[in-house]
Design a protein that fits this description.
The structure holds 2 protein chains of 2 kinds.
Chain A (H helix, E strand, L loop, with lengths): L6 H17 L2 H9 L5 H9 L18 H13 L6 H7 L13 E5 L2 E3 L6 E3 L20 E3 L7 E2 L9 E3 L7 H4 L1 H28 L1 E2 L2 E2 L4 H27 L2 H26 L10 H12 L5 H14 L3
Parallel strand pairs in A: 1-3
Antiparallel strand pairs in A: 1-2, 2-6, 3-4, 5-6, 7-8
Helix pairs in contact in A: 1-4, 4-7, 4-8, 7-8, 7-9, 7-10, 8-9, 9-10, 9-11
Chain B lengths: L6 H17 L12 H17 L18 H13 L9 H14 L2 H12 L5 E4 L15 E5 L2 E12 L6 E7 L10 E7 L5 E6 L8 E12 L3 E2 L5 H15 L2 H21 L5 H31 L6 H24 L9 H9 L9 H12 L7
Parallel strand pairs in B: 1-4
Antiparallel strand pairs in B: 2-3, 3-7, 4-5, 5-8, 6-7
The chains are: A alpha+beta, B alpha+beta.
Chain lengths: 318, 384
């Protein structure tokens, strides 16, 4: 048992961080808030870097890595609030032509919502009865899909998150998203990255902002808030990493609960530590919180995870 | 990242399981919580069984009389013994998890030879004389004095919250040997025999009704200078070695036990109809995630200490904070499952609920742990 990152995994994580910080740093993030358009050039760069084809076998043109590596990459994406339907496109690699290389932008209907619908090439899922099949590269042709053009019933929302355009779709919104545990896990990985980043931002601020003649981080009230953020991040981290190793549905359910909590509460506490500044549009904190809220609605619900974990107890296999 | 075990580790597990299945039925009945001599005899008896089978001091270094097992093997040991319902360390807690590892790390060859074998063989019990009435969380503010008189220290003062004091043979005692030095610098670590003249033990009754620990009064107690572990006035550093052991490994078996209790809770709720309440189901489901993840955190920390080869670090605080809270949540949920029966002190879960209240206080309060996380991991400034 060596439940720690291997050297290769650490190197991969560092490499993805470097790529994303170079291509989607803070200035790029703030520019995206002003003009929330999907950056197709960046999408193809991600494709070239293997972000979408990470888990495809090398024989199929992929990178041939596993779920743990994908989780580390998505953690880094969550850290910088990388925009676009990353999870849906990653999961479409090998099934939807062009997804693996970043030439096609693929989104999916999750729980009655579709992210980035107007700018995507393909929408996956049973969307209000419209079952279109776009050019599929894999064997999943039987799976319900709708081409963007056929999703006539979708209504645009005024999305809470300025960096995630949302459409509401009628009906159940499709069962595709709610039953795919990999979508849950990769989303949890993004939440983990967001949680870790907001903890860092809060600590940075607490170390430098002075009140009453000393850094506010010297006050226990602030110190304990930051410590609790880190504890939640570390719990989320081991839950997400363990789920990536085992791919067990209940490990994934645990990961979801901890990652959602770490990201949402982490962003709120980060806002609190920033005080009045945290409540402004200019501060980035609200972007982390809003994205974390969006992700809590993706691919099933916390209730579903909790019920699954409860059922295990009665089954006596815990 | 890997969560599978090697064939050697699985073989170790299989052998241990077989041994536990054979030996556990021969154990005598568990003594009542108030029967201290009975508890001592029971806990030492179990330790002797472990010793005879070659499992004593499993994770201790070989040159300290241990088995030199890897942290992963130790984890398997704790997991399997708990699953099989074997006794917990009990009265051997301080000897095996605090004093022993400290003497192994900091003691002279003579000290190791004198004190370690009786702990491993289940012959001597240790207690911990750290806390004082005016020095709990502020441990370094302790006032128990020791001054040199020939080859002895003469010790006067008092200690409190001393578990197992009534049946202990030895006490790992922190004393002030230099009253003029800054408070962290004038402390020494002594091994004090509990039968020395001048030692008085007075049991303290807890809110659970039992005498779980005691106050210890020291009136000019003579302790040989040769019983000092580490240099004079270097006791604080020696103590930090002890405390990192305490936070790193002390609760591993309990996490496994909590998962078992959770399963029992769910099955009880199923029988008494409370399982139909979705709010209760969700609460238990969340606790399942909590203890599953605490187990993952344990595996993570153990793998890390295996990699670094050092004593457990400040990450133990993260575990302790979350675990102590989760344990209290578990028994609050148990009360919801039990309904009015939760007010019956005769119920096992009711006593567990009461005793869980100490977890956010003992071994460093949650508030102190938050400070440790904030200052040592996050690098926030010291202050108030």
């Amino acid at each position: 048992m060596h439940f720690q990152l291997t050297d290769d995994q650490s190197a991969l994580k560092a490499g993805v961080r470097e790529l994303l910080e170079g291509r989607f740093g803070r200035e790029r993030l703030r520019a995206a808030v002003e003009a929330p358009r999907l950056d197709r050039a960046l999408w193809r760069e991600l494709g070239d870097a293997g972000f979408f084809a990470l888990r495809l076998p090398e024989a199929d043109g992929g990178v041939g890595l596993g779920l743990p590596e994908a989780v580390l990459a998505f953690e880094e994406a969550g850290r910088v609030l990388l925009t676009g339907p990353l999870v849906a496109t990653h999961l479409a690699a090998g099934e939807v032509a062009g997804a693996a290389t970043g030439e096609a932008v693929v989104t999916a209907a999750y729980g009655g919502l579709v992210e980035w619908m107007e700018q995507a090439d393909v929408v996956r899922g049973d969307v209000a009865g419209a079952r279109g099949v776009t050019a599929a590269g894999g064997a999943a042709a039987a799976e319900a899909r709708a081409s963007v053009a056929s999703v006539a019933s979708a209504e645009p929302m005024e999305s809470l998150d300025p960096l995630t355009p949302l459409h509401r779709v009628r009906g159940s919104g499709g069962s595709y998203g709610s039953v795919d545990p990999l979508a849950v896990l990769l989303t949890a990985a993004e939440q983990l990255g967001t949680a870790a980043r907001t903890c860092e931002l809060a600590v940075q601020h607490a170390r430098t902002r002075e009140q009453f003649g000393q850094p506010i981080g010297a006050f226990q009230a602030v110190k304990h808030l930051c410590a609790q953020m880190l504890v939640r991040v570390e719990m989320a981290r081991v839950a997400v990493y363990a789920a990536a190793v085992t791919a067990d549905p209940l490990d994934i359910a645990s990961a979801r609960l901890f990652a959602d909590q770490a990201a949402v509460r982490g962003a709120r506490d980060c806002l609190q530590v920033h005080g009045g500044m945290g409540f402004t549009w200019e501060s980035d904190v609200h972007l982390y919180l809003k994205r974390a809220w969006v992700r809590t609605q993706r691919a099933g619900s916390a209730t579903q995870s909790e019920e699954g974990l409860a059922a295990e107890l009665v089954a006596g296999t815990a | 990242m890997d969560l599978t075990h090697t064939p050697e580790e699985e073989e170790f597990r299989a052998r241990l399981r077989e041994w536990l299945a054979k030996m556990l039925p021969s154990l005598p009945a568990k003594p009542s919580p108030d029967d201290w001599p009975g508890r001592r005899a029971y806990d030492l008896g179990w330790q002797r069984m472990l010793h005879d089978a070659g499992y004593a001091g499993l994770h201790w270094p070989v040159d300290a009389g241990g088995q030199g097992a890897t942290p992963t093997q130790h984890l398997i040991f704790l997991e399997e013994t708990e699953k099989a319902g074997a006794p917990y360390v009990g009265a051997n807690f301080v000897g095996l998890l605090h004093a022993g590892p400290t003497i192994a790390a900091e003691g002279t060859p003579e000290q190791r030879a004198r004190w370690l074998p009786p702990v491993l063989r289940g012959e001597e019990v240790w207690c911990q004389g750290f806390s004082e009435p005016d020095a709990g969380s502020d441990l370094a503010a302790l006032r128990t004095r020791a001054w040199r008189d020939g080859d002895d220290y003469v010790v006067s003062g008092s200690k409190i919250w001393t578990s197992h004091a009534e049946v202990a043979d030895w006490c790992e005692l922190l004393v002030r040997t230099d009253a003029t030095a800054p408070k962290h610098r004038g402390i020494s670590w002594l091994a004090m025999p509990m039968d020395a003249p001048g030692v008085t033990v007075r049991p303290l009754r807890t809110l659970a009704g039992s005498a779980e620990f005691a106050e210890v009064f020291l009136d000019e107690v003579r302790v040989p200078v040769a019983n000092r572990v580490g240099a004079e006035n270097d006791g604080w550093r020696v103590t930090m070695v002890t405390l990192s052991f305490e936070r790193g490994t002390a609760f591993v078996g309990e996490v496994v036990a909590c998962r078992r209790v959770l399963g029992e809770l769910a099955r009880t709720a199923r029988k008494n109809g409370r399982w139909d309440d979705p709010a209760l189901r969700r609460r238990l489901g969340t606790l399942n995630a909590e203890f599953r993840t605490l187990w993952r955190l344990t595996q993570w920390n153990v793998s890390e200490s295996e990699r670094t080869g050092g004593v457990p670090g400040a990450g133990g605080s993260v575990f302790k904070l979350r675990y102590s809270h989760a344990r209290q949540e578990l028994y609050d949920a148990a009360a919801e499952v039990l309904g009015p029966d939760a007010l019956d002190q005769g119920r096992e879960w009711t006593l567990d609920r009461l005793s869980s209240l100490s977890y956010t206080i003992a071994a460093g309060t949650s508030q102190i742990q938050h400070n440790i996380v904030a200052e040592r991991i996050l690098g926030l400034p010291k202050g108030r």
